[in-house]
UniProtKB/TrEMBL annotation:
Coiled-coil region list: none
Highest taxon in the source lineage: Bacteria
SUPFAM superfamilies in the cross-refs: Alkaline phosphatase-like
Name of the protein in its database record: Alkaline phosphatase family protein
GO molecular function: hydrolase activity
Short name of any one Pfam family annotated for the protein: Phosphodiest
InterPro entries tied to this protein: Alkaline_phosphatase_core_sf, Phosphodiest/P_Trfase
Organism: Mycobacterium celatum
Lineage: Bacteria, Bacillati, Actinomycetota, Actinomycetes, Mycobacteriales
Length: 374
């Protein structure tokens, strides 16, 4: 599912700013920014577009952006599912999930009963085989443009990092370091692209909830980071700030547990995805019955598709044949504030999350692109 203006278009626009010969800027960033030699792209995990007004209460820079006083704000969409692994690879490759193959937070490995969690993935399966699309970091390198990524040390070498950012020159950081200062120093040191990422806002949303005091503290910290980057921008530099998804709080009354409901559990052999988008792998011949049962139980609360119907509906964009089996026999995309837990299949922490995302609602899919010129 892709908006005409999506997360897939951000790095091509950044590459066009830097003069990469095969880069096409469909967002009009080059017209607004002009000639630059340095571009920083910073992704704030969980900073959905609809959250900006609430964030602004603790974020003077974002408040100024919303008021039209500084920077330029555009609305884009992430790709479906609206989950971090899928979005990061859509950003890094400029490709839709059906092409790059990172089709959810967790997916069942074809020809195996193992579920792959893309966050904890290392080298099995090999990242360059599991995700075959070249990244924009690779493409910039081939064009002679330096591309760097400043990431938490434990991210470097992971399967997801390789799938999303391979080709980048990796720089490690720790929680004790001055992240904004390190990013600013990298940008000032050499022309080219610098990529940065922060998860603090998303973590607070998951653990404490959107709108919680902890979430507002995280908002203030993110705004302080961005403010320092804007203030440190060289005259020949641009800063592009975006997000991977939005989110919403899921109340207890809106949570269903497929392992506690015999009607939902019937015919289901394995479960993947996340609480907002479930991939159900069924026993032989059970798919029509599972679609019918889930459609009945979750009527008005979720869209329920067979795999074929989900692909025809274009949820993932065109899907490569070798990626089809990563999608469940049944795809369940929650609407409203519903979530489907799978306590028999997942760690108990998943059921304890307050804020969630993954589905196709505007609250989850809308993301900002905020552009600043040095």
């Amino acid at each position: 599912m892709r908006s005409p203006r999506s997360i897939c278009d951000i790095l091509p626009a950044a590459a066009a700013l830097l003069g990469a010969p095969d880069a096409v800027d469909t967002l009009g960033v080059t017209e607004r920014i002009g000639d630059v030699r340095r571009v920083a792209v910073v992704l704030v995990d969980g900073m959905g577009g609809h959250l900006l007004p609430e964030l602004a209460a603790d974020a003077p820079l974002l408040a100024s952006v919303l008021a039209g006083e500084v920077g330029r704000l555009d609305e884009l969409a992430c790709t479906f599912p609206s989950t971090t692994p899928t979005s990061l690879v859509s950003l890094g490759t400029g490709a839709l999930p059906g092409e790059h193959g990172i089709l959810g937070f967790t997916v069942k490995l074809p020809d195996s009963d193992r579920v792959l969690n893309h966050i904890f993935w290392r080298d099995d399966p090999p990242p360059d085989q599991w995700q075959p699309v070249p990244t924009w970091f690779e493409r910039l390198g081939r064009a002679g443009v330096r591309a760097r990524a400043l990431l938490p040390a434990h991210f470097i070498g992971s399967g997801l990092t390789e799938a999303a950012y391979r080709g980048a020159e990796f720089h490690a950081t720790t929680t004790r370091e001055d992240y904004a200062g390190h990013l600013a120093d990298l940008l000032a040191a050499e022309p080219g692209l610098v990529y940065g990422y922060t998860a603090e806002l998303d973590t607070a949303a998951h653990v404490f909830g959107i709108g919680s005091p902890e979430w507002h503290v995280a908002a203030a910290n993110v705004d302080a980071l961005l403010t320092r980057l804007v203030e440190a921008l060289p005259a020949d530099a641009a800063l592009l700030v975006t997000a991977d998804h939005g989110g919403l709080n899921v109340p207890t009354a809106a949570r269903f547990d497929l392992d506690a409901d015999p009607q939902l559990g019937a015919g289901v052999r394995m479960v993947a995805g996340d609480p907002r988008v479930r991939y159900l792998h069924t026993v032989d011949g059970a798919t029509p019955d599972v679609v019918a049962a889930w459609s009945e139980v979750l009527a008005g609360r979720a869209e329920v598709y067979s795999r074929d119907d989900a692909v025809v509906a274009g949820l993932f964009g065109p899907v490569r044949a070798d990626h089809l089996q990563r999608i469940g026999d049944v795809v369940v995309s929650c609407t409203g504030d519903t979530a489907v837990l799978a306590t028999g299949y997942e760690p108990p922490e998943v059921a304890q999350l307050v804020g969630m995302h993954g589905a196709a609602t505007a609250a989850e899919m809308a993301i900002p692109l905020i552009s600043f010129r040095g």
